[in-house]
Design goal:
- The protein has one helix and 13 strands.
- It is mainly β.
- The strands form two sheets. It has a seven-stranded parallel sheet with strand order 1-3-5-7-9-11-13. It has a six-stranded parallel sheet with strand order 2-4-6-8-10-12.
Length: about 170
């Protein structure tokens, strides 16, 4: 069921390479609204490792996505990794001004990554399914996207959405 707001941190986050691991375990047949964290806030960590999984005996269906409506972190966060065999969706809050990379290449189900609130340039890698990356108006020539090894079926592809104005080509 919906979790609401969650704040996590480490007891001692004084290091310069701290990782916090969070596993989301949704329930099949409950839809994305029930497998949701409204706001996940993390602080004083450099890497956030997300894993998308399921609870019970049945894997999540397409409509059962593990969802983080808003993922908020302080300026310490520089990297997010995502792995798992179940659908995952998250939206960055925009406070993560030093976030440089999101690596979801270990995802074997659909990843929906919304970075439209970010002001930092970001490198995004996705996994083996047909993923969605949302940039809004923040996409620029310093951002990079690697769609991963997704489906070879031409009707199922990764999708990147952005509102683009005034880009400069880099060759």
């Amino acid at each position: 069921e919906n979790i609401g707001d969650v704040t996590l941190g480490l007891k001692d986050a004084s290091g310069t390479a701290d990782t916090l691991s969070v596993t989301l375990k949704g329930t099949s047949g409950h839809a994305a609204a029930s497998n949701t964290i409204d706001l996940l806030t993390v602080s004083a960590i450099e890497t956030l490792a997300l894993t998308s999984s399921f609870r019970g005996t049945t894997a999540l269906l397409a409509a059962d996505t593990n969802t983080i409506t808003s993922l908020a972190a302080d300026t310490a966060l520089t990297k997010i990794t995502a792995a798992g065999s179940d659908p995952l969706s998250f939206t960055m809050s925009g406070a993560e001004t030093n976030l440089a990379s999101i690596d979801a290449s270990a995802m074997t189900d659909v990843a929906t990554i919304n970075v439209s609130n970010l002001t930092s340039n970001v490198s995004i890698k996705t996994g083996s399914e047909d993923d969605l990356i949302v940039f809004g108006t923040t996409l620029n020539n310093l951002d990079t996207v690697d769609g991963g090894a997704n489906s070879t079926d031409s009707t199922n592809v990764d999708v990147l959405t952005a509102t683009v104005t005034g880009l400069t080509a880099t060759t």
